[in-house]
Amino acid sequence: MPLYGHELSESITPKEAGLGFAIKLNKEAFIGKEALTAEPSRKRIGLKLLERGIAREQCEVFLNGKLIGITTSGGPAPTLGGNYAMALVDISAKDAKEFEVSVRGRKLKAEAAALPFYKRA
To answer: What is the fold of 41-113?
Structure first.
């Protein structure tokens, strides 16, 4: 779930945060409508870290050595058995599966993880 100030803010639109369903664009003109109708350049994704470390807010995310975004929040997920993070990445990387996340000066391997984070029965 997006948290205001992390995955949703004045600089992160509801569409980028994955909350486009909550926007009612069929209303008459309203402040911010033009910005909300634009196609997003970034997308919120889930990441599972494959190496020891916790990706907190503002860790850089890389794809094939290229900086493509930042983590917005992260931490351990005991019921899932690992460390997970949400990240805002370039829209061109939305379907990628393997990433690297810079945590305390080390690039850790990570993989795309389905959102929301919970154990599916």
So the answer is: Elongation Factor Tu (Ef-tu); domain 3 (2.40.30)
